[in-house]
Each structure stands twice: as C-alpha cells, then as structure tokens.
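Section 5: illustrative case.
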C-alpha cells in the first residue's frame, strides 16, 4: 500500500495549532494559579508529584501544621468535556499515591466546561473537587448568607421594616420606556428586559430612571431577590446580585470604601478585601446594582457627578462586568447633562468611556394600580372594605388618581385612606402625608407601647427644621451629637435628660441610621416636611430657606397644595429688587414660582420692573402685559409661557428655557437630498427633518431638551421644541435661522404670534394643534 504523502504545510499547521493550544493552556494555568494566590495559598506551578507532572501545587498554611494543606490542581481549558469519569479515575490514582507519599492532601480539577452529575458524584467519593473556573472564583468571597438574606427580606420579613409586610406580598411589576431610533418603545415588564440583558452580550450598562415614588428601589430589591434565588437553586446559573445603597455617600464616592463596607456590614465577611471582590467582578460573576445614585450628594455640581461616575467606572469598565444604576430622572438638570453622563463617548472632553442605556420607569396604568390594591388592601390594618371600595374613593378624589400611579404614594394612600375616610378630613397629598406621619407616631406610642418624651407638634416642628436643613444643603445628614444640639437648642430639656430626648427623637421620627449618620427614611417625607417648613416661613413672614435656594418642583407642588398666602408672596416679590443679595437671591423668583402655580395668570399685567426673579419657574404662566423693565430673569423657565414680543424686551435676560413652534411643509426635493446624507432606518421624512432641525439649533448654541412633532399624509409637520437659550439677544434669529428654512412656513415664540401661527395649521393636524394651544 502506498504511503500517504504529508505536506509540509499540514505539518506546519498542526505544529502552529499545537503551539497555540499549549500557550492557551499555560495562560489558563496562570489564571487559576492567581485564584489560589488570592485565596491565600502558596503556589508552585508545573511541579512533579510522584513522577507525574502537576499543573499547580497550592499549599494553604494551617496553624500548628508544619506542611499545611496541600492541593494538587489540574487545569483544563477545553470547550468540551471528553471522558470525564476516566479523567477523574486517573487523577484519583495520582492523589492516592501522593497521599501515601506524604506529598498532597487533596486534589481539584478546574475547567471551563461544567461537569456532569455522574462525574461529580464519582469525584466526591475520591475526595476530588470538580469545579469550573467561575465556580472556583466564587470561593474568593462566600456570599451565600447574603443571598439568603436578600430572598428572606423580600419574601418573609425585612428587619429594617419590622412593621411592614414583606415587599414580595404586594409587589407589582413595573413598566418602562426606552428610546430607539424609531422613537420610544414600551417595555411592558421591565424585569424581562433586564434579565435578557443580563444573559446577553450587550456591553452597555443600564440606568433605571424614574421620578420620585415610581418604585426604583423596590425594583432593585425585586431584581436582587430573583437573581439570589436562582443562584442559590443552581449556583453558576446566573450572576450574583450585589445591591449597593448609595444613600450614605453624600459627598463623593470612593468605590473601595463602598465595597469593603458592603462586605463587612451587609455580607458579614470576616476579612473584607476589595481585591477579591474586584477579581470576582473581572470574571463576570456579579451584577452590581447601584441604587440611589441621585441620593449620593446633597450639594451636587457637575464635577461631583462626574467624579462619582468615574468611581463606579472602576468596576464597570471591565469587559465582563454588568452594572445597573438607579436615579431620579430630575437629578440630571437637562437632557444634555443626562446624555453627557450616560452616553459620554460623543463628548470630546469626556473622561469616561462606559455608557448606560437609560430605561425610564413609567407611572402605573389602571391595571397595575388595581393589581396593587388587590394585594395591599387586605394587608392594611383598619381597612374594613374590599379593595374596590378604596379604588372607587381614589377615583372620586380630584388629583388622587394621578398620585396613585406612583407606587410609593399609592402605598401611602392605601395606609392612610381608611383613617381619613373615617375622620371626614379633606383628602389631598398634604393631608395624606400628615395622617401617615401622625399615625406612625401614634402607632409607636400606643400599639408598641413606647413612652415618647416629645409631643407630636414638637417632633414635627423639629423634623421640619431638619428637613429644611437637608433640603437647603446645609447638612447632608446628622449624627447623634448633631441631633443632641438640635434638642438642646429647640426643646431645651433638663440637661440630665438631654441624651434621652435625643434618643427618643432619632428612634421615632422617620429617620434611619446608616453607620453613624441619620437620614429620612424616604426622600418624599423630607420634601413634604420641607414644604411644611417653608409654609411656616411664609406664615411668619420670615424667609430663610425660602430665599436662599431655588425651589424644587416636588417641594413646590406640596407648597401649593398647602395654600400659602398670596399677599405675603407678593410682598416678597416687591421686596426683591434687582440687587442680588447672597441671603435672598431666590426670594422673588421662588415667590413668583409659587404664585404662578396657584394662578397661571398671577403675573399678567403686573409691574415687575427692577425685580429679582432669578431662577423663577414661570412655565405655562400667562405673562402678557407684565412690565419687566430691568427685571433680573437669569435661569428662568418660560416653557409654554405666554408673553408678548414687547413684554421681555427690557428685561435682563439670560440662560432661559423656552418653547419654539415650527410649522413645516415638507419639500420632496429637500427630503431626497437629505436621504443621500442621512440614513434613517424607518425612512420617515419627518425623522430626517427633526434630526436636521435639532442639529442646526445645537449649532446655534441652543441646548435642545425635547422635540415633539407629528405630521399628516400631505407632508405637513407641526414641531414643538423645548430648549435652553443662553443668548436671548439672538432669540429671533434662533427662531428663524435654521437650515431647513426653505420648508418652514411659519414659526412662533411670542403669544402675539400664536393666533396667526396656528391659523396656518391644516385641519389634519387639528388634534396636535389643539394639544399645543391648550398648554
């Protein structure tokens, strides 16, 4: 028989593949050796044991032992698992020989592929540990008890909320929206999207955004519980959830401190080391959830925000890492800032590379609200009616239906509504919060039989002062010593009882302790109490916190519902002349904000000459006929506001938020030209135009917040642009000077342009026209 000729090329190919395989195996051995070193072992690679080559000899030092515990380790970086039982038998023979020779005590085989149950059973009898590399990595830090605690807190009882039923008893799935090239896409159950992302290859991280009370923290706890339960049931089947609460970091974050504190306090790790956590994260073992990014700093600036994101990036930048951050949507002051923080790659001056896909939690719909009520009402003490009764009462109270679409507020409504119905009091947000807070104090005193030293009015007064200090950024949190100073200053107890009064205040006042510092248990409670404190300043005609910081929209909403004295607010506007004073910079602007929330036309026709209205939120206000000669109007929000062209001409204007309308008749020739340069997957001509319009406005120095638009089959397009305009002197040129001018039939900013502008809108766009007109 003729011999088969073997070409030099085939020999060379096999030699090359063999060399690559050896190099790959050696690299895997080095990787496994590093794991044993991290575990504290002395490692000798490529050693001969009983005349057999062994990949690794790892020796763990034991007290009183001259040799320690010696483990011989075989490393296999293979895609398949050939002859598993045979491999175990061979290694068993070597282990037996090494034990008799006094050269080894146990053995392990580390692979990339998973082992069969049969092989595991056979190896267990022989004293050999069979693990994948990922499973070996999880031995660096034992998080088993932490995972069990995550499950128990959600399903059984959360010791941090001893009076509440477990969250799992009444949790309802959340929905969200994500932005795609085609527009906004609804995510019916956000958990489904997140789990698909966890097990996928997408390297972009997630940012879960939502307004206050939308359930971000509950979602984080639910997600952590689901992953923990899955991992405990089948180790290695999913990532290990690591839920960080960022509320205690009120300045700038240091990731090493966060991790070691978490391992110590949350996981009970005896010797918490950041290096071990980092190695596990590098191997893709964790899903890290940074909950409450918006609560990390009280006094936030761009630098602080950037520094905190850089710290998270120390862990997020690893190729195999998966990170979720949760934050209030309003934490980012503009759409541009949100984009810069979450999508930094397009920024020439960016110091970070990691990107986050924003998922915006949307308020509950009717079905979700009903599902929550069905679960929650039976768990409420004092609820004597079926859930449908409370659903109907919520629907019948003006404004309550909208509030009930936020999980946190709906929970508060359900807790307090039975009491309010029984008392016959007016039901609105302030009355709900007041009833909830007073009811909890009563529960502490009567149901728990606690002897409270502070009267209810005194306690609430102290909390209002504290909330204002938190809200104004004067202090990020209080320690026991700080609280004792509060008590001595405002309560003046006997000196011998100062400590007792302080303990009473900290223990029974909706505060939680984290480390040595105390904060409000929920941000919305702080905001309500801050509004109460501001209301007290108005009633006493003593603006302190009211004058030194721009009003937050949530606090403004509470304050308006408390019905402040409009005459007093007008007096404050009169006293706020154009001279800027450090201690009253926002007095006039805040007073105007509240007045225009009480009555949209409050400023119409008024003489506001020389007044300081810095930072005023005049969105949707009617300003027609008002005199603004020499009025300071820096950083004023005028979105949807109605004002005449001559109204603002004499004002000192800069850095304004405004609304611009455009009516466009699409030109097919222009569209064809645009399609040559801009490819839009949907192929919609209005998509192309909006992108072009946005780009041109940006080139003119305009920061575009959002653009709303729609069109008809005839090629008409109605566009509404919300933007920040830094240079008001160019207002009219910004209104008109865009590259799509040939298609713009008309545009409008001023109220005296509106009638003529909307008259050009065809009937086919009447629905959108009416929506924009009825701001």
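Designed sequence:
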């Amino acid at each position: 028989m003729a011999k088969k000729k073997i070409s030099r090329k085939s020999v060379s190919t096999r030699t090359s593949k063999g060399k690559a395989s050896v190099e790959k195996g050696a690299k895997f051995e080095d990787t496994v050796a590093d794991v044993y070193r991290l575990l504290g072992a002395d490692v000798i690679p490529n050693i001969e044991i009983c005349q057999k080559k062994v990949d690794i000899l790892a020796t763990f030092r034991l007290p009183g032992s001259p040799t320690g515990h010696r483990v011989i380790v075989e490393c296999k970086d293979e895609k398949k698992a050939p002859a598993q039982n045979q491999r175990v038998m061979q290694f068993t023979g070597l282990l037996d020989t090494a034990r008799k020779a006094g050269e080894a005590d146990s053995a392990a085989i580390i692979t990339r592929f998973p082992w069969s149950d049969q092989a595991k059973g056979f190896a267990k009898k022989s004293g050999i540990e069979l693990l994948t590399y990922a499973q070996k990595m999880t031995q660096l830090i034992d998080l088993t008890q932490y995972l069990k605690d995550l499950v128990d807190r959600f399903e059984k009882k959360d010791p941090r909320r001893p009076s509440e039923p477990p969250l799992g008893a009444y949790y309802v799935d959340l929905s969200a929206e994500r932005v795609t090239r085609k527009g906004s896409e609804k995510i019916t159950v956000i958990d489904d999207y997140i789990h698909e992302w966890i097990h996928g290859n997408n390297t972009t991280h997630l940012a879960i955004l939502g307004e206050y009370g939308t359930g971000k923290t509950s979602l984080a706890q639910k997600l952590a519980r689901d992953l923990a339960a899955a991992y405990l049931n089948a180790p290695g089947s999913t990532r290990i959830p690591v839920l960080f609460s960022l509320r205690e970091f009120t300045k700038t974050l240091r990731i090493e401190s966060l991790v070691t504190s978490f391992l110590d306090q949350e996981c009970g790790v005896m010797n918490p080391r950041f290096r071990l956590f980092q190695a596990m994260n590098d191997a893709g073992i964790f899903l890290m959830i940074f909950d409450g990014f918006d609560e990390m700093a009280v006094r936030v600036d761009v630098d602080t925000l950037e520094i905190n994101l850089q710290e998270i990036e120390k862990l997020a930048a690893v190729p195999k890492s998966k990170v979720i951050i949760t934050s209030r949507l309003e934490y980012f002051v503009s759409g541009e800032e949100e984009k810069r923080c979450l999508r930094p790659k397009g920024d020439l001056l960016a110091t970070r590379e990691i990107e986050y896909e924003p998922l915006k939690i949307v308020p509950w719909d009717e079905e979700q609200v009903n599902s929550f009520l069905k679960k929650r009402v039976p768990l409420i003490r004092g609820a004597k009616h079926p859930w449908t009764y409370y659903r109907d009462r919520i629907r019948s109270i003006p404004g309550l239906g909208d509030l009930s679409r936020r999980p946190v507020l709906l929970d508060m409504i359900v807790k307090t509504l039975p009491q309010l119905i029984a008392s016959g009091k007016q039901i609105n947000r302030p009355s709900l919060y007041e009833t909830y807070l007073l009811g909890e104090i009563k529960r502490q005193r009567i149901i728990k039989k606690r002897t409270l030293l502070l009267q209810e009015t005194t306690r609430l007064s102290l909390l209002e002062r504290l909330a204002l200090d938190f809200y104004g950024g004067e202090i990020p949190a209080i320690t026991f010593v700080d609280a004792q100073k509060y008590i001595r200053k405002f309560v003046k107890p006997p000196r011998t009882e100062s400590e007792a009064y302080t303990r009473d205040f900290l223990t029974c006042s909706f505060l939680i302790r984290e480390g040595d510092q105390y904060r409000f248990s929920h941000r919305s409670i702080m905001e309500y109490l801050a509004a109460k404190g501001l209301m007290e300043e108005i009633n006493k005609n003593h603006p302190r916190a009211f004058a030194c910081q721009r009003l937050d929209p949530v606090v403004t909403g509470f304050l308006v519902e408390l019905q402040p004295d409009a005459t007093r607010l007008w007096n404050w506007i009169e006293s706020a002349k154009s001279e800027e004073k450090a201690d009253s910079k926002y007095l006039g602007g805040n007073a105007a904000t509240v007045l225009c929330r009480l009555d949209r036309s409050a400023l119409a026709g008024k003489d506001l000459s020389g007044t300081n209205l810095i930072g005023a939120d005049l969105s949707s206000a009617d300003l027609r006929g008002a005199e603004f000669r020499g009025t300071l109007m820096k950083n004023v929000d005028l979105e949807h506001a109605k004002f005449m062209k001559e109204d603002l001409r004499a004002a000192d204007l800069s850095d304004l938020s405004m609304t611009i309308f455009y009516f466009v008749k699409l030109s097919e020739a222009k569209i064809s030209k645009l399609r040559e340069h801009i490819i839009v997957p949907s192929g919609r001509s209005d998509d192309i135009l909006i992108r072009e319009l946005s780009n041109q406005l940006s080139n003119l120095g305009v920061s575009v917040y959002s653009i709303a638009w729609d069109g008809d089959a005839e090629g008409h397009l109605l566009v509404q642009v919300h933007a920040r305009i830094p240079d008001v002197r160019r207002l009219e040129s910004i209104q008109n000077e865009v590259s799509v001018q040939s298609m713009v039939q008309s545009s409008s900013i001023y109220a005296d342009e509106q009638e003529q502008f909307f008259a050009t809108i065809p009937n086919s766009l009447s629905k959108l026209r009416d929506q924009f007109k009825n701001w």
